[in-house]
Fold this protein.
Amino acid sequence: YGESWRKRQVIVNQREQENIEKMKTLRVQGFSYWKIAEVFNSMKVPTKTGRGRWHARAIQKNLENESSA
């Protein structure tokens, strides 16, 4: 999440990067992963596929990936 592949190159997906920043902000404010997922679902923030719903584990994994990058 946050990047896409285009012609064998990794391209930064700006909208997804903004969503990751929102995740970080909410987490710093004390929101649980579950609550962040609930907020994203209520705001109708699309997942990577655009079909699913946000889950706590997906939020956690995205934030872990960002901190290790």
User: Anything to note?
Assistant: The CA atoms of residues 6 and 22 lie 25 Å apart.
